[in-house]
Structures are given as C-alpha cells and as structure tokens.
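Our consortium's second objective concerns turning raw sequence data into structural hypotheses that experimental partners can test. To show how far this objective has progressed, the report includes one record in full. It was chosen at random from the queue rather than selected for favorable results. The single chain below, 168 residues long, was entered without modification.
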Amino acid sequence: MEWVDVVDKNNRVIKKVTKKMAHKKGILHRTVISEVRDSKGRWLLIKQASHKQDVGQYVSPVGGHVIAGETEVEALKRETFEELGLKNFKYELIGRAIFNRPVRNHIENHYFIVFEIFSDGEIILNEESDDFIFFKENELKKRVKEKPSEFGAAFYFVVKKFYPQFLK
C-alpha cells in the first residue's frame, strides 16, 4: 500500500493517507513532474501507455507521487530512474501549482512540484510509456499551439502555467 502526505494549498503536511484514498476522495497530495531537455535544447516527451490516464498523448516524461515522508528531490530522483532509467542528471525547480481533474474512476488533486532535468543519458522507458520523442523547442511550441489535443491535460497545464511563451 502506497501512502502519501496530504498537504494544504501552501504545501504544508496535514496528515497521511493511502494514494488510493487520496484519489477516491480528491484529497490534495504531492506529485513531482519534470520536463527533460538535452544538451541540444531538445525537449523529451513520452506517449502514455494504454493503461494510463492520457493514452496515446504526449506528456511530461517524469510524473509521480511523492511518497509520505519523502522529499521532493528524493521523489524526483526515484521517479526519473523508474520512468526513464536516468540516474545522473542536473535539475532545477521550476515552480509549484495545484492541478485538479477527474480521471477514469478517481479524482486527481495534485500539488505539482515541477522541475526541469538536463540530461543526455540513454532513455529506458518502463511499462507506463509506449514511446518517446525529442522535439526541438520551436517544433514543440508550434505543435502545442496547432494541435493541443495531442498533449495530455497535465502537460498542457504545466505549459500554460510555467511556459506561457509556448502558447504565444
């Protein structure tokens, strides 16, 4: 059973509950999200597998729950290794925001902690993703503006909140 810290809108821990309960009741809890860029300035995006919430859409390459008692950076490093196979990378905190949406049979009420990772490491996907692609920044900006339905809701939320220049 996976436990998560319940937080308030200021990211203060209130108590802990199971991840299942947090989703069932729509309780606010932490999730790390990270965009990944390489030394050529390209942005890595993944396509979600059929059992995930944004099936077939491009999403941020790292996204996962912060386990109760875990730091944001510990969660970032764990999730990045689990989802991309990357161990050694540089990262930067971009910001925090609350993302809430109904998905399948639960409610995601996530306190996003958004990072950028900088790495040229070999990408090794886990079962949560079907494929990955690198976009040059100008290609990604154009695609996000012209074909927003190709991107998952959480990624689009991150773009609107932290990369508004992509929508201009």
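The partners drew two points from this record. The first helix runs from residue 19 to 25. The beta strands are 3-7, 13-18, 29-37, 43-48, 58-59, 62-65, 90-103, 106-118, 129-135. Both points have been shared with the crystallography group to help prioritize constructs.
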